[in-house]
Amino acid sequence: MSTEVKVPQLPESVADATLVTWHKKPGDTVARDENLVDLETDKVVLEVPAPAAGVLLEIRAQDGATVVSGDVIAVLDTSAGAAASAAPVAPAAAAADDSDADDGSDPKTSPAVRRLVEEHGLDLAKIPGSGKDGRVTKADVTTYMESAPKAAPATAAPSAPAAPKPAAPSGTRREERVPMTRLRARIAERMVEAQSNAAMLTSFNEVDLSAVIDMRKRYQDAFVKEHGVKLGFMSFFVKAACETLKKYPVVNASVEGNDIVYHDYFDVSVAVSTPKGLLTPVLRDADQMSLAEIERTLGDLAARARDGKVGMDELTGGTFTITNGGVFGSLVSTPILNPPQSAILGMHAIKERAVVVDGQVVARPMMYIALTYDHRIVDGREAVLTLVGLKEALEDPARLLLGV
Prior knowledge:
- The protein is of the alpha+beta class.
- About 30% of the residues lie in helices and about 25% in strands.
- The protein is built from eleven helices and 19 strands.
- It is globular.
């Protein structure tokens, strides 16, 4: 008996997907719900599980093919004979075929990690994992490749001096042309769209984070014990942004044609760097969330975004975006809008700087913050006051509890 493997229903507004990587080949046995292939859309990577246990008879769509919902991409043999063929092979046969059967893959690793391991011919079993339950992350693979010893070149036997030759470029001079992934192409399209359709302007301010840092030090242990998650900086920025946006609703608005759409809710998009590019999962009704709920929800969304398991509905519909270039060491930058939103907040690295406090020069942990806004609907006054409101809330975190 044969069973067709079809492309699952794609997320709303996604017309098609690109078949990225088959994890099985014809003749391989598969278990029910085992991931057969990865599909890449404009936003997420989807896994196609096996509908039943059996043997993969035929692959009808190869890597790189464009497919739509309902397309038949493979055929499984689920007959009793197929089930029998899935039984363990004789020891001699298993030993003879061991080099092909054990490729070191791990179904718990993300598609990005598996792809990187396959591209570089690595043995996944030899790579130490730093993720949950020893799971190997993309960073683990990169670190392993960087630390792997390089083979020393063979030394040629001495020979008679040769005639001088023209100087040649030192090192290897290679070029590789690689097509953009669907996600990278979509990111590029959105960035050009933002540049073309909005009148972007950026204002800056600086924040003394002494109070926030002191609060984190004083309550971190109790916070972790009570909520099972660390108290980070992002939750303070999300809460401060929500309270400030309530005072300046146009900064939380969006543009649709000639209309300004004001939102009476605060769905904050938080930029997350992933192996495939920048994604912006959304914290729904962030103003109603506690610091612990923000940290817990954001941690889950970020982890699933990096593993390509975040849903399309979790990436769309935000009203305001926060991006943190400081985690990579950025001191100051001008973030680009996330259309159709009217503003985005950029966080940066925290640096000890000399500032004047009550007439005295002291060292304080300072951060530059940047607000890029759509000058078509947001005036300079609202933008600057938004930055001032954020500064006041973060320099005196009690304001976040009192709502002042």
